[in-house]
Write a structure and sequence with these properties.
By secondary structure, the protein is mainly β. The protein contains 6 helices and 32 strands. The structure holds CU-O-CU linkage.
Length: about 550
């Protein structure tokens, strides 16, 4: 009788146990190949993954392991970065060339191997060498674990929306030309939505991207800004969007008619097809709040209600002007972490490293340049010089002479950063890193400078998410501004805009050993030297050390 009871209880227990779902291993093959692509009524060969522009989407679930075999069939060195993937202990798979790996040389292969831990949402991948990311990029969709719902109403369908920039000429030629002259590169010739500039660009025959919707249904749009150098406004005529996630971190939902998105950032929005019928314009246009030339062409696509015939499209009554700072500020100020029981915002409250980094442009003498000078960029007056072998290798194998760990915690010279220009625009060169003990906490204030001109810098940190605890205009005032920090539900992300002529404060915990790049995600600023890296030492615990490098790690 007793054993019978136990048996029944056991059976019951087994039935009630949630089906344990094994994490999967997902295999992808990325063939990096040249492909002829037609845009703006002209055809040119571009570097692609598997011949696609934009490249293939990587689908996985939280906890899955992703294996991507990258085969380089082009004449350029290649490396791929999985932007926003934390790469816990697997820095070898992070991808920035000469930071965590030597490039994959022509004819060579490298297997990126990482696990998606504690993340779900939209991220993206892109080449992290030269300017190849102009055409070598795609989406990463991390679904929640099986059986775990979204913290918002389940959408009927999901759609990746990749925003990008297109140059009529070869982008490597564009940047090489700029580096030769010491001047800024040519701006792009069009913006694109899922690879298409749209009919407004004057090549109607090529059409544009169309999103088909059913009246009443709700869609999850996974918007990614893959543009090289431009922040963008994103709008859909006649529709409101509800923001629910940025950079693969859930937010408190809020409604907006305009999304502002910087290169490197992702934004998930819910779109409800509230009309019965019709065609509505989808638009991506540049945002620039400084006197800097941008590509001011608007990329367009269409939202198409099923059954709608004819070609009349409802256009946007207003598109924010390029310098619509208030629109951008309203959007940015609306972002808050969801901070729910299941997704708490774990903001570091005790800070070990209080850092102030100035970010901006400078000028260096250059005898062979057009103005006998070249534009450079810096963090704390250091223009980062790329090493000849990867920093992570140098750190792991203790190779001397590759980098120093004396990156300044504060600007070497204190001046009115956002006021009158200093007399000296020169910067120092260096491959200098900032060292952090495992699990130490960091508050980093990123302060824009008006050297040359103030400008919005979308700063991206590899290996971590951070909380954006504060933001303001002018010079950061430690006493006054710290008091206003949001330490309860600040937005969590991996790329944040430092406002032109202002500052942004972020906090993170250094719980990922390795070498982690931080740079402006405007590609031209990275090229000019607006970059540095943190080196995070191993901890003492069992899972607190960098894993050994894979055997096929490329050699320099
Ligand atoms: Cu999306 Cu270091 O880059």
């Amino acid at each position: 009788m007793a054993t019978q009871g136990i048996r029944i209880m056991l059976l019951l227990a087994i039935c009630l146990l949630p089906l344990s779902v094994e994490a999967l291993v997902r295999h992808y093959k990325f063939n990096v190949v040249m492909k002829n692509a037609t845009r703006l009524c002209s055809t040119k060969p571009i570097v692609t993954v598997n011949g696609k522009f934009p490249g293939p989407t990587i689908y996985a679930r939280e906890d899955d392991t992703v294996l991507i075999k990258v085969v380089n069939h082009v004449k350029y060195n290649v490396s791929i970065h999985w932007h926003g993937v934390r790469q816990l202990r697997t820095g070898w798979a992070d991808g920035p060339a000469f930071i965590t790996q030597c490039p994959i040389q022509p004819g060579q292969v490298y297997l990126y191997n990482f696990t998606l831990t504690g993340q779900r949402g939209t991220l993206w991948w892109h080449a992290h060498i030269l300017w190849l990311r102009a055409t070598v990029h795609g989406a990463i969709v991390i679904l929640p674990k099986l059986g775990v719902p979204y913290p918002f109403p389940k959408p009927h369908m999901e759609q990746v929306i990749l925003l990008s920039e297109w140059w009529k000429s070869d982008t490597e030629a564009v940047i090489n030309e700029a580096l030769k002259s010491g001047l800024a590169p040519n701006v792009s010739d069009a913006h694109t939505i899922n690879g298409h500039p749209g009919s407004v660009q004057g090549c109607t025959s090529q059409g544009g991207f169309t999103l088909d919707v059913q009246p009443g249904n709700t869609y999850l749009l996974r918007i990614i800004n893959a543009a090289l150098n431009e922040e963008l406004f994103f709008k859909i005529a006649g529709h409101q969007l509800t923001v629910v996630e940025v950079d693969a971190a859930y937010t408190k939902p809020f409604k907006t008619d305009t999304v502002v998105i910087a290169p490197g950032q992702t934004t998930n929005v819910l779109l409800t097809a509230t009309h019965a019928t019709g065609k509505y314009l989808v638009a991506a246009s540049p945002f620039m709040d400084a006197p800097i030339t941008v590509d001011n062409r608007t990329a367009t696509a269409a939202l198409h209600y099923s059954g709608t015939l004819g070609s009349t499209i409802t256009t946007l009554t207003t598109l924010p002007p390029t310098n619509a700072t208030p629109v951008a500020t309203t959007f940015t100020d609306s972002l808050r972490s969801l901070n729910s029981k299941s997704f708490p915002a774990r903001v570091p409250l005790k800070i070990d490293h209080n850092l102030l980094f100035t970010v901006g442009l400078g000028i260096k003498p250059c005898a062979i340049c057009v103005n006998n000078s070249r534009v450079v960029a810096d963090i704390n007056n250091v223009t980062f010089v790329m090493p000849k072998i990867a920093l992570l290798q140098a750190h792991f194998f203790k190779i001397k002479g590759v980098f120093t760990d004396d990156f300044p915690a504060n600007p070497p010279v204190v001046y009115n950063f956002t006021g009158t220009q200093p007399t000296n625009f020169n910067t120092m060169n260096g491959t200098r890193l900032y060292r952090l003990a495992y699990n130490s906490t960091v508050q980093l204030v990123l302060q824009d400078t008006g050297m040359l001109t103030p400008e919005n810098h979308p700063i991206h940190l590899h290996g971590f998410n951070f909380f954006v605890v504060g933001r303001g205009q002018g010079n950061f005032n430690r006493k006054k501004d710290t008091k206003k920090f949001n330490l309860v539900d600040p937005v969590e992300r991996n790329t944040v805009g430092v406002p032109a002529g202002g500052w942004t404060a972020i906090r993170f915990r250094a719980d990922n050993p390795g070498v982690w790049f931080m740079h402006c995600h405007l590609e031209i600023h990275t090229t000019w030297g607006l970059k540095m890296a943190f080196v995070v030492d191993n901890g003492k615990g069992p899972n607190e050390s960098i894993l050994p490098p894979p055997r096929d790690l490329p050699k320099c």
